[in-house]
Write a structure and sequence with these properties.
Layout: E1 3-7, E2 10-13, E3 18-25, E4 33-39, E5 46-52, E6 58-60, E7 68-73, E8 78-83, E9 92-99, E10 116-117, E11 121-126
Parallel strand pairs: 2-11
Antiparallel strand pairs: 1-3, 3-8, 4-5, 4-9, 5-6, 7-8, 9-10, 9-11
Length: 127
């Protein structure tokens, strides 16, 4: 069983930065993929970024490319999302997710591959 705990959310002005952290409790494999999603009330949860637990492959939503960076520290069982040049439209609850063993059947941008989720952390960007 894997548990995920996010932290690092808060209130920031437009143009500012935040770093979200996700603590991973449990064992992941080389086939695992970690991701960040976000959701605003009344809208579907949307993909932000993903990274393989082993290797260096990462993927980003077009809306955050060049501004957000996902990274991981396997030794500490942590995943991070560095968010720079934040915009008011980045305001959302951000969720950490894991696909324990990614088969490639579904896109990493969809919810389908992910079998564990954190409780979410609120990010609010003021204009």
């Amino acid at each position: 069983q894997v548990q995920l705990v996010e932290s690092g959310g808060g209130l920031v002005q437009a143009g500012g930065s935040l770093r979200l952290s996700c603590a991973v409790f449990g064992r992941l494999s080389g086939g695992s993929v970690m991701a960040w999603f976000r959701q605003v009330p009344g809208k579907e949860r949307e993909f932000v970024a993903a990274i393989r637990w082993s290797g260096i492959i990462s993927d980003y939503a077009d809306s955050v490319k060049g501004r957000f960076t996902i990274s991981r520290d396997n030794a500490k069982n942590m995943v991070y999302l560095q968010m720079n040049s934040l915009k008011p439209e980045d305001t959302a609850v951000y969720y950490c997710a894991v696909s324990s063993f990614y088969s490639g059947v579904y896109s990493l941008h969809s919810l389908n591959p992910y079998d564990h989720w954190g409780q979410g952390t609120q990010v609010t960007v003021s204009s």
